[in-house]
Structure formats: structure tokens, C-alpha cells
């Protein structure tokens, strides 16, 4: 979601990889134009394992170096700031103003995230196991930060 590239699928397109089946991996990458999906084919299980490991380790290293990403968005028609911290997880705060400051609305560790989804344009859903997922609408000026940071 908030990284330049993420591994979406690894293995055979028919389920579990069998000998001789086509081996694929796919990625979703952030660009200045939004999210792009790419599918790659490899020849051997060793190649698949190597590419998968390299992508996962690379994204993990990038997240560790960046440490924190904070974006302005809207949640339930309220201006909020969604912060993802490498170690501390997700924090949603009110956008600071003179009256209320930046009060914390939600704070969840990564382990609480059950599912995430986005439309590749501006809407982001994070489900932490409550009755319904939290639907964020990213602000226009923040989109560039999210997709190509």
C-alpha cells in the first residue's frame, strides 16, 4: 500500500506450483499516475524464490529506512492524518487545529490489520477486525506522496 512496490502473488497461476507449470509473480507499484500492476514469469522454482526474497527484503529495507509515512485524508467526513510507523503500526489523528489539536482517534499495531484494499486512485480501506473497515479518502495533494514516496 504505502511502499513503492509490493509483491502480490508468487507461484503458479493454477494454485500450488507443480513441476512444469508456469511460475509467476506479480507486483503492484506506485507511480506518479497511480498504481500499476505487473506480472512476471520465471523459469525455475529457484528463480521464483530468489525474486520473491529480493522483493520482500527490498521493500522491508525501504520501510525500515523511511521509518514513518504520514498522509492527510478524510475519514467519515472528518479531516484526519494517517501515520504508518515501521515499529508502531497505524495511528489516526485529527488534523490539528486551534480547538482540538491532533487528538489520537485510533492506534493499531500491524498485527491487528486483517485486510487492506484500495482502488488504486484515492480510496483506501483498512480492516482492523471491527464491524466494518475504515474507509479513507486520500487528499489530492497527498496522492503523489503515497504512490511514489
UniProtKB/TrEMBL annotation:
Domain Syntrophin C-terminal PH: 65-135
Main location: cytoplasm
Keywords of this entry: Cytoplasm
An annotated Gene Ontology molecular function: structural molecule activity
Pfam family membership, one: Syntrophin_4th
Coiled coil residues, start to end: none
Entry protein name: Syntrophin C-terminal PH domain-containing protein
Annotated source species: Knipowitschia caucasica (Caucasian dwarf goby)
Amino acid at each position: 500500500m504505502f511502499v513503492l512496490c509490493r509483491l502480490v502473488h508468487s507461484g503458479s497461476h493454477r494454485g500450488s506450483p507443480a513441476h512444469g507449470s508456469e511460475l509467476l509473480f506479480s507486483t503492484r507499484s506506485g507511480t506518479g499516475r497511480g498504481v500499476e500492476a505487473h506480472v512476471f514469469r520465471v523459469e525455475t522454482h529457484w528463480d521464483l524464490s530468489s525474486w520473491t526474497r529480493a522483493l520482500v527484503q527490498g521493500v522491508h529495507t525501504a520501510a525500515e529506512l523511511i521509518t514513518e509515512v504520514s498522509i492527510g485524508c478524510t475519514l467519515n467526513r472528518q479531516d484526519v492524518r494517517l501515520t504508518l510507523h515501521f515499529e508502531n503500526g497505524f495511528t489516526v489523528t485529527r488534523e490539528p487545529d486551534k480547538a482540538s489539536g491532533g487528538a489520537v482517534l485510533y492506534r493499531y499495531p500491524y498485527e491487528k490489520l486483517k485486510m487492506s484494499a484500495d482502488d488504486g486512485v484515492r480510496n483506501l480501506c483498512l480492516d482492523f477486525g471491527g464491524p466494518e473497515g475504515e474507509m479513507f479518502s486520500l487528499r489530492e495533494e497527498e496522492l503523489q506522496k503515497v504512490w511514489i514516496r
